[in-house]
Amino acid sequence: MSFPKNFLWGGATAANQIEGAYDEDGKGLSVTDITTAGSLDAPRMLTYKLNGKLEKTPAIPGAGLPEGAVGAIDPNEYYPNHVAIDFYHHYKEDIKMFAEMGFKTFRLSIAWTRIFPKGDEEKPNQAGLDFYRHVFEECKKYGIEPLVTISHYEDPLYLSEKYHDWGDRKMIDMYVKYATTLFEEYRGLVKYWLTFNEINSTLLMLSSFGNNVTDDKVYQHAYQKLHYQFVASARAVKIAHALDPNYVVGNMICGIVDYPLTPDPKDILANRHMWEQNIFYCGDVQAKGKYPTYAKRLWNEHNVHLDITEQDRKDLLEGKVDIYTFSYYMSNIITTHEVKDKVGGNFAAGVKNPYLKYSEWGWATDPDGLQYYLEVMYDRYDIPMMVVENGLGAVDKISDDGKIHDDYRIDYLRMHIKAMERAIDDGVDLIGYTTWGCIDLVSAGTGQMSKRYGFIYVDRDDEGKGTLKRMPKDSFYWYKKVIESDGKDL
Ligand code: BG6
């Protein structure tokens, strides 16, 4: 067995990381629009005004802006997402190149603030609707199926401030109105929808990646925010199905594989509990339609009391997702023991795995982890799955021959494609694979351009200099071959 003929090969992006044009054609400000650039050692910052003065604070999950602060743009700061790779004005050229590689699908997200600039308007912004219509039509021209993330780390700034980052039930109505507008507008142009990108990242950021948040108030907010997002997602699924039976709606989980460091039963249990909190919790609610039994333990550990209504529970059950999708980059190690050999890097601080190699940003390359994840999750949910992000962030250099020989990226992707093949052979119903950052884009974690993932190089650097010219890398021609041969010619 191998990859099926109709397998959805493609690539993935997010609006705030590619589009730029952050204030064009009526677009409002999103949370990312007030986020500065960072690096491996320095966090990205949120800029705001307090008592008329411009200030900044690290963009740390759960921290948010200080009381009374209003997100604002500081003319002396650099915001990489404001121009990004200017997909807004280059989409025709970019989609043409995706088509040249033979993409069957292109994952992109819609910027909520192009459709509802503040988030609570009566009517959508026509220019925003038109932009995505043109993008989808361009995809259709080449037979590329759009895979659309409704919300990818780009909440409207206005709503985020007014409702304290999903701290209010009213956010559900705002999201549902936005999602319904999209489902109505793009019927016939889009089939696949994902409700929230990496919905579990709210929990992951608290106790993984070297973070160890202990404040119960932060957990209360995180679990309540997630509940409102689960309900918003479930209601969106129900509406999508009612509007068009062809719609396929998925969740999207940040798929990190945790391993116990030792056979100490305490490590095994700690590892299991980490899976429950970080991975299973969100997937269970979205794919099984109800809270799992261990949820009570997770809430009790941090004194969490949730606002959940009977109608919410009904919606969760009736709004189960059709497909389970996830991102996969790396694995992690969990232990209750003291360890010396730690691995640093953005999003990766933890115990070093001696069997794995690490990227320049400290991310462990672990294709077997992808096979493991696919097999565990398919067995658990029994619905079709898609890997909607996977890739290697690396520094690319233009060689003397004017080309980019990114064999390291090809190696990484090849190993992960082989892992997916093994999972398919084991019976996993895997229907698609979209590599992350099929064209170079702004890193979400660090705001850098130099952390490149693309098959297509974009001439732009960490300071915003460059011509924005596009150029295929070696991996471009390699991936074309992979798609052409249905994954045989690796
Ligand atoms: C995922 C996000 O977590 O990882 C993407 O969905 C992000 O938005 C990707 O870009 C890679 O992370 P980074 O920090 O290298 O951009």
UniProtKB/TrEMBL annotation:
Alphabetized InterPro entries for the sequence: GH, GH_1_N_CS, Glyco_hydro_1
Alphabetically ordered keywords of this record: Glycosidase, Hydrolase
Entry's Gene Ontology BP terms: carbohydrate catabolic process
Taxonomy, superkingdom: Bacteria
Gene Ontology terms, MF aspect: beta-glucosidase activity
Keyword Lipid biosynthesis found: no
Pfam families: Glyco_hydro_1
GO cellular component: cytosol
Record-linked Gene3D superfamilies: Glycosidases (3.20.20.80)
PANTHER family, alphabetized: 6-PHOSPHO-BETA-GLUCOSIDASE ASCB-RELATED, GLYCOSYL HYDROLASE
Record-stated family: Belongs to the glycosyl hydrolase 1 family.
Name this polypeptide is given: Beta-glucosidase/6-phospho-beta-glucosidase/beta-galactosidase
Originating organism: Lactobacillus gasseri (strain ATCC 33323 / DSM 20243 / BCRC 14619 / CIP 102991 / JCM 1131 / KCTC 3163 / NCIMB 11718 / NCTC 13722 / AM63)
